[in-house]
Amino acid sequence: MKHQLSEIGQIAITVSDVSVALAFYRDVLGLDFLFSPSSSLAFLNAGSIRIMLSTPQGAGVVGGNSILYFKVSDLNEIFPVIISRGAVVEHEPQLIAKLPDHELWIGFIRDPDGNLIGIMEEKR
């Protein structure tokens, strides 16, 4: 039997203040809040992937996380809404690549700790 990984189940984001980050990811980005077992942890749902917000606990650096890319169905409609809710624009949406069956568009924002977040649409 071949052993292999399947889909990603959870991504951890190291933040300086979980309550501030939770407000951003829940209220600005619109992710579904799941639970918060302590003041240093909170969990949200991004489709089938759970997002864990955590203060530094032996791993991770505030503001130095990997870039998360969230898919949206209409970037031109959703990007301004996210900005109006308080996200900081890093780069307005732009065409990244023309592929045979779609165009890839991405805009970038930053969370309260400076983590870069991509908002992307695959336009068909």
Describe the protein:
The chain has 124 residues and is of the alpha/beta class. It has one domain (10-123): 2,3-Dihydroxybiphenyl 1,2-Dioxygenase, domain 1 (Roll), CATH 3.10.180.10. The protein is 17% helix and 44% strand. The strands form 2 sheets. Strands 1-4-3-2 form a 4-stranded mixed beta sheet, with helices on one face. A hairpin with a 2-residue loop joins strand 3 (41-46) and strand 4. The longest helix has 11 residues, at 18-28. It is globular.
Q: Top keywords for this entry?
A:
4-stranded mixed β-sheet, alpha/beta, single chain, 2 helices
Order of helices and strands: EHEEEEHEEE
Specify the CATH class. Alpha Beta
Query: How confident is the prediction overall: mean pLDDT?
Result: 94
User: What low-confidence regions span 5 or more consecutive residues with pLDDT below 50?
Assistant: none
Q: What is the number of helical segments per DSSP (H or I, 4+ residues)?
A: 2
CATH architecture name: Roll
Q: How many domains, in number, for the residues? A: 1
For this entry, what is the oligomeric state of its chains?
Answer: single chain
Distance between the termini: 38 Å
Strand order of the largest sheet: 1-4-3-2
- Can you tell me the CATH superfamily? 2,3-Dihydroxybiphenyl 1,2-Dioxygenase, domain 1
